[in-house]
Design brief:
This protein folds into two domains: about 30-55 and about 70-205 and about 215-265, no CATH class; about 270-419, Nutrient germinant receptor protein C, domain 3 (GMP Synthetase, Chain A, domain 3, 2-Layer Sandwich), CATH 3.30.300. A hairpin with a 7-residue loop joins strand 11 (about 270-275) and strand 12. It starts with a helix and ends with a strand. It is globular and about 100 Å long. By secondary structure, it is of the alpha/beta class. About 30% of the residues lie in helices and about 25% in strands. The chain has an eight-stranded mixed beta sheet with strand order 4-3-2-6-7-8-9-10, with helices on both faces. Strands 11, 12, 13, 14 and 15 form a five-stranded mixed beta sheet that branches.
Length: about 425
């Protein structure tokens, strides 16, 4: 009898728990989900904030084409992000939510103003913004870039951003950077920051650019917005912004960024193009995959730090414009030597530029710091300043593993003979 009463009492106590509702719940439709956040220097207040809010189709409703899918872009001047959010929430019938934020875009003017750290720290503290949110620095206004950013084909804007950034490790034309990593590197005593550089490309370079005069041009050796193309996304990511602390001090082209990522072992696959050693004016593309880890040594005993980088690269030669028989093992050595020299000169070019900018984006400091026993010794050495005095020696070895589907290149025969 006592047991029955106890069971009944437990049931009576538990039943109300299953009958209660979430009195403080907010429906998902009550939120306005921000997908991109733009930060510019303010005019009427400290900062100008732009919120990109895509309109998701209702369940069961037909989804329009991605190019015509509606998006709301709201811009406001405010002293801080939280103040701006509060002001926006008072003027729209939904609540701004950053749980699906994919990208933070910072204008170049703001990045060069020495105040970037003041804007990044509050973003890290804001609980709705995740540390893996992507960060970009854009050429002109962050607001203008966000207005021109559209979803590609039938994808959502968040998917387009994620897939675009994912191409970084397969092209190397720009680095991949998250908000959390950016905040950590800004405070680091042994490395400095390289941020993806973005711009709007309206296709003007394709029509109004300089005429081709037959000279060899290094692919990707320019900045975002300068690619000679039409169609596709207007927003282009190419190259990187280089920072000294929290101030932008310069830029690297897409090719120079490739060289940095190659040394940092952050490039899984890339296509490079060299000029044909025996037939100038024609080119030979080289596809490299799964780079081996570079060997890096830093000698700090002399007056100037001596850096030695050793790279071993393997790749494929899928196309030969000149139709010279480079498939022959003896001829392959010509291409291997030419490509090794091409990479060596590229690394040295990027290194000299970073030395001028006084910014170690190669992460050589991560190797140097292992030679010190205490943090105090390392900080007194002051690698960030000593990097600009350092000297680099690069040794590159390249091996061709495959030559595409043809075993031998043959000349074209016409009535005029072979060519």
């Amino acid at each position: 009898m006592v047991l029955k009463k106890a069971v009944l009492l437990i049931i009576i106590l538990l039943v109300p728990m299953f009958l209660t509702a979430c009195f403080d719940a907010i429906e998902i439709n009550n939120y306005a989900y921000v997908s991109m956040l733009g930060i510019d220097e303010g005019v009427t207040d400290k900062m100008r904030i732009t919120f990109n809010i895509p309109k998701f189709p209702e369940k069961g409703a037909p989804d329009p084409d991605a190019e015509t899918r509606e998006m709301e872009n709201i811009t406001i001047d405010a002293p801080s992000l939280l103040s701006g959010v509060a002001l926006i929430n008072s003027s729209i019938p939904k609540i701004l939510n950053f749980m699906h934020l994919k990208a933070i875009v910072i204008s170049e003017d703001l990045a060069t103003s020495e105040n970037l750290g003041d804007y990044i720290a509050p973003l890290i503290r804001y609980r709705q913004i995740r540390r893996n949110t992507y960060v970009f620095i854009c050429k002109n206004s962050a607001r203008e870039l966000i207005l021109d950013c559209k979803p590609y084909l039938d994808a959502l804007i968040t998917e387009s951003i994620e897939e675009l950034v994912g191409r970084a490790q397969y092209t190397g034309f720009f680095p991949e950077l998250s908000l959390g990593l950016m905040y950590d590197i800004i405070k680091s005593p042994f490395r400095q920051l390289m941020v993806p550089y973005a711009a709007v490309n309206e296709g003007e370079t394709l029509e109004d650019g300089p005429p081709y005069k037959g000279e060899y041009l290094i692919p990707g050796d320019f900045y975002a917005g300068d690619t000679a193309r039409k169609g596709g996304q207007e927003v282009e990511i190419l190259g990187s912004a280089v920072l000294d602390g929290d101030k932008m001090v310069g830029k690297l082209t897409g090719f120079e960024t490739q060289m940095v990522l190659l040394v940092r072992n952050e490039l899984k696959r890339a296509v490079f193009t060299i000029e044909d050693p025996e037939k100038p004016g024609l080119v030979i593309p080289i596809e490299c995959k799964e780079f081996s880890k570079p060997k890096i040594k830093v000698d700090l005993q002399g007056e100037r730090p001596q850096i030695h980088v050793e790279l071993h690269i393997e790749g494929e030669m899928p196309l030969i414009q000149s139709r010279i028989h480079y498939e022959d093992p003896q001829k392959q050595k010509i291409i291997e030597k030419a490509f090794a020299e091409y990479v060596k000169q590229g690394i040295e070019k990027a290194f000299l530029k970073c030395k001028t900018l006084k910014s170690d984006v190669f992460d050589f400091g991560a190797v140097s710091v292992t030679q010190f026993w205490t943090i105090q010794q390392w900080e007194s050495f002051d690698w960030i300043k000593r990097f600009s005095e350092s000297e680099l020696k690069a040794d590159v070895e390249f091996t061709i593993r495959r030559t595409g589907k043809l075993r031998k290149s043959s000349p074209i025969i016409s009535t005029e003979g072979k060519k």
